[in-house]
Amino acid sequence: MEKQPSIYTTQFWLLCLSNFLFSASFQMMIPELPDYLGSMGGKEYIGYIIALFTLTAGFARPFSGKLTDTIGRVPVMAFGSIVCFVCGGLYPFVHTIAGFLLLRFLHGFSTGTKPTATSAYVADIIPEDRRGEAQGMLGIFTATGMSIGPSIGSYLTDWTSINVMFFTSSAFALLSILILLNMRETLPTTQKEAFSLKLFKIGWKDVFEPRVIPAFTVMLLVSFSSGVLLTLVPDQTKLLGITNKGLFFTIYTISSLTVRLFFAKSSDKYGRIPILMISSAILVFSMVLCALTSSFWVFMLASILFGFSWGFNTPTLMAWTVDLSDELYRGRAVATTYIALEAGIGLGALFAGQIYQGKVENIIIPYFLAAFFAFTSLVYLFFKQKRGVVLLES
């Protein structure tokens, strides 16, 4: 048999390293922000910490998709890292609730741009039959950053100060920008346009790619759970007597990494829908455990299961998105699925914050709601698979 050329080029590894630094940058502050906002007297606004961030990210997706398909992948990735760099360094100088919420809103432009261009870049340099594997490997670096970030943030805050943590977050983003400077552009020159303000004129066709509705639907349903976790876990961690508020995030990311390391090729081999069905089922159990937990070990088991679920579904959903898309509009297709991600996380955070409001007895409700949406995605995928089989047989 002829040996397949390696998909892991220098460009791919640079992309992975940049993603690691970028994800660590914005994630390291997440466990500390609820207490930081609470110190300003804004405890009732903790749901907005994630909701505002994801609202802006979702708003930015159509623009980032269009710009990714016109001016290029690398400039859009660089813009996302620059926003992370600037916003991370501004937190220490904001001391009002309104100012903090405005900064969270602006910070969301980072994740609304860089991941869109990154996924399009990967699709450009990776063969179709190995997209799941490549997305899994890229996800390992992203998830590692998201795993290490919260723990670094908590340790820096405990041992130095929260301002040192914010400046460290900004430094990580700066390093991710410097790496991007060494990357070549992959957008074909025939597609490229010079940057101009007219590119910000967005129509419905720039906002939503109908080809990827199945991936959009599943992403919307399963990502609700992430918003719930990001909002509730820091307080739930304290209620369980765990001192490091980043521990849950670290554990679930390690379990996610394990899945990506050993099962990166699973969706390429067995199909996107079967793998997504497995991940949705695991997610249901994770959310139920989070709702019912009263012990450290059950909480950690819930974290591990959540990591297993996201280790399967994130790379699979992005690979499925690219499968369904037109190669001329990959940026738009990826942006559409990311809109679902941001909308799901934002709604999950908003509902969790509004329902919880610091009342311990209310904490189970958002988790059961997340479990319901995860189960709905499982049912949707089941009928999608069944319909595909019927069409194939006919």
Explain what the structure shows:
With 394 residues, this protein is mostly helical. It is 76% helix and 0% strand. The protein has helices at 10-27, 33-39, 46-68, 73-90, 97-111, 114-125, 131-159, 162-180, 204-207, 213-239, 247-263, 266-270, 272-292, 296-324, 330-356, 364-393. The two termini are 35 Å apart. 59% of the residues are buried.
SSE string, helices as H and strands as E? HHHHHHHHHHHHHHHH
Mean pLDDT metric = 85
Classification by helices and strands: mainly alpha
Work out the radius of gyration: 20 Å
List low-confidence stretches.
389-394
Helix content: over 70%
Give the number of helices. Answer: 16
The main β sheet shows up as:
none
Distance between the termini: 35 Å
Overall outline: globular
Number of β-strand runs: 0
Binned strand content: under 5%
Features:
about 400 residues; about 75% helix; disordered C terminus
Q: How do the strands and helices of this protein lay out in sequence?
A:
Blueprint: H1 10-27, H2 33-39, H3 46-68, H4 73-90, H5 97-111, H6 114-125, H7 131-159, H8 162-180, H9 204-207, H10 213-239, H11 247-263, H12 266-270, H13 272-292, H14 296-324, H15 330-356, H16 364-393
